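Ops channel
N.P.: pipeline sanity check, posting one input/output pair.
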């Protein structure tokens, strides 16, 4: 009888151990999923922007097919497609980021101008700006994009319709001479990948845009978007490795994460008038200072994702925002001097 009881107890213990092991195993993997789910989501959300881009591409192919059948050559066949895409992106901007544009009146309703902007990890603010200007000013902003974009599947039609080209100085001048708006980010892909939430400009002594403006005799309009680096960010480790890979291959292999619903507000600065007495180097420096001034007036440094989300709720008490935002109007105060030293120090580190 003792043997039967012992056998029963052993059997019960084995069954209990098996059930407990299964339960713990399930709970362990549930805990792992709970722990890493937010991290996975932050890497998945940037992909939503690419999904929107490919939805845009599909719509453009639809319009091309539709107008080819109808043989509609009486007007710009892409006007309807551009309007539809502008509404699509503008809706995304307003709903997801509470997007605003300040200083839209600084963009001329007619005539050429060169728009110079800060490049985020994903230039989503450029898509929003392009949409807003197309809807409210009925003007298309021509753009300059990196050559690797043309190699992405489907992107050729998107770049063709939205007038985005790799660009050279002669082609940019020609576009401006034809009376178009042209947008350039001197920092380009390098600034997109290796910029940080400290918002330093990484132009690496590029002055080509200044040569374009002087040759075409057009004004330069500085543009910056508040909280842009809080919406999407580059993964910071191991940055030295990614920098070396980029210098060797020019491929944008730095992982991105984000998709945070922070407040985005594009500030269009006062135009810098054409001045024949300026050299390209001096004009480039003047433009850089104008954008840095917009950054210092409208952006907290370093940027904060949480506070960027709080910025969306203007009806909340502003105590936190007033203490953290750097809205500086006095150009001679000590804080501006410290921030300028901060910009210079970070630039030297990146340009070595």
């Amino acid at each position: 009888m003792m043997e039967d009881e012992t056998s029963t107890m052993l059997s019960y213990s084995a069954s209990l151990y098996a059930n407990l092991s299964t339960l713990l195993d399930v709970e362990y993997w549930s805990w792992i999923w709970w722990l890493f789910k937010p991290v996975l989501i932050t890497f998945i959300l940037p992909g939503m922007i690419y999904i929107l881009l490919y939805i845009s591409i599909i719509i453009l192919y639809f319009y091309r097919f539709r107008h080819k059948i109808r043989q509609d050559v009486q007007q710009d066949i892409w006007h309807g497609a551009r309007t539809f895409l502008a509404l699509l992106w503008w809706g995304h901007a307003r709903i997801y980021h509470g997007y605003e544009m300040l200083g839209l009146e600084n963009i001329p309703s007619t005539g050429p101008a060169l728009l110079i902007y800060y490049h985020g990890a994903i230039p989503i603010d450029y898509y929003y700006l392009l949409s807003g200007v197309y809807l409210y000013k009925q003007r298309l902003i021509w753009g300059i994009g990196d050559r690797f974009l043309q190699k992405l599947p489907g992107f050729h039609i998107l770049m063709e319709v939205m007038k985005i080209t790799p660009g050279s100085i002669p082609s940019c001048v020609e576009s401006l001479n034809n009376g178009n708006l042209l947008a350039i980010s001197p920092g380009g892909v390098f600034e997109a990948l290796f910029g940080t939430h400290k918002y330093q400009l990484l132009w690496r002594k590029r002055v080509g845009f200044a040569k374009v403006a002087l040759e075409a005799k057009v004004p330069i309009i500085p543009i910056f978007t508040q909280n842009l680096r809080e919406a999407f960010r580059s993964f910071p480790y191991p940055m030295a490795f990614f920098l070396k890979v980029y210098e060797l291959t020019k491929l944008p292999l730095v992982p991105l994460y984000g998709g945070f619903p922070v407040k985005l507000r594009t500030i269009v600065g006062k135009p810098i008038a054409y001045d024949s007495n300026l050299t390209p180097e001096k004009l480039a420096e003047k433009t850089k200072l104008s954008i840095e001034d917009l950054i210092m007036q409208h952006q907290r440094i370093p940027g904060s994702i949480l506070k960027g989300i709080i910025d969306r709720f203007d009806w909340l008490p502003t105590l936190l925002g007033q203490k953290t935002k750097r809205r500086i109007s006095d150009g001679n105060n000590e804080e501006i001097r410290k921030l300028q030293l901060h910009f210079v120090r970070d630039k030297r580190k990146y340009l070595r």
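N.P.: looks fine end to end. The two ends are 84 Å apart (CA to CA).
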